[in-house]
Amino acid sequence: MSTRLDHRNPLVFDTHELGRRPGALQRITREVAAAADLGIDGVIGVPEGSPVELDLRLESVMEGVLVTGTARATAEGECVRCLVPLRREVAADYQEMFSYPNPDSDDARGHRKAAADDAAEEDEDVTPLEDGMFDLEPLLRDAVVLALPMQPVCREDCAGLCAECGADLNENPDHHHDAVDIRWAALQGLAGSLGTDEKDDMSGAEAGVDEKQEK
Ligand SMILES: [Zn+2]
Ligand SMILES: [Zn+2]
């Protein structure tokens, strides 16, 4: 909580210019370089350093500043079915209420109750402004993850890869393995294992035969 925000950080925004008069509006557009791990780890994400276009609308309200906006970027990943590389244009919407940290200084109207709930609220969906500034980073990160597909596919009807040999079924729509082939392979496997068993039995063959005759 006590960490000071650095105004030089491109994801830190200053609300001083907006002022505190409810209804005041400010639009900000800014291009930033994507931070590391912006996306869904190992699935799809915005490559580190690539441009992220930020469009923010700051609105002064009684309790603080309501921030609404959209981030646009290009994410890269691969199709979960056929593993070809793919790109997705992402438009991630976000909204957050950043409150003035000291409710005592606000208008008295309706704030007695708010003050009582303050501790709980601050931990939930209301983030306090720090020196009139806020950090968009956590908001941006959550919004981008939500906007990305959990299971990206190169196209909706991607046929994926053959589960047995890995052939691309998009390029070979008629590709299949006959059931006979599978059974044959199973028999071959069985024959192979019998072969080794036989070898093992050979050494103790006589003992085995004797046992059978006794019964
Ligand atoms: Zn695919
Ligand atoms: Zn196959």
Strand content: 25-35%
Q: How many domains make up the coordinates?
A: 2
The rough form would be described as elongated
Structural class category: alpha+beta
**How many E-type strands?**
9
The succession of helices and strands, N to C, reads EEEEEEEHEEHHH
> What's the helix count?
4
Which molecules other than protein and nucleic acid are bound?
Answer: zinc ion
Please summarize the sheet with the most strands: 7 strands, mixed
Distance between the termini: 84 Å
Radius of gyration: 32 Å
* Mean pLDDT across every amino acid position: 82
Give the helix proportion (percent range).
25-40%
Stretches where pLDDT is under 50 for at least 5 consecutive residues are: 105-113, 197-215
Organism: Streptomyces kanasensis
Protein name: Metal-binding protein
InterPro entries: YceD
Region (Disordered): 99-126, 193-215
Features:
7-stranded mixed β-sheet; 30% strand; alpha+beta; elongated; binds zinc ion; two-stranded antiparallel sheet; 27% helix; 2 domains
How are the secondary structure elements laid out?
Blueprint: E1 12-14, E2 25-33, E3 38-40, E4 44-46, E5 51-61, E6 64-78, E7 85-99, H1 111-123, E8 126-128, E9 133-135, H2 137-147, H3 179-203, H4 205-214
Parallel strand pairs: 7-8
Antiparallel strand pairs: 1-9, 2-5, 3-4, 4-6, 5-6, 6-7
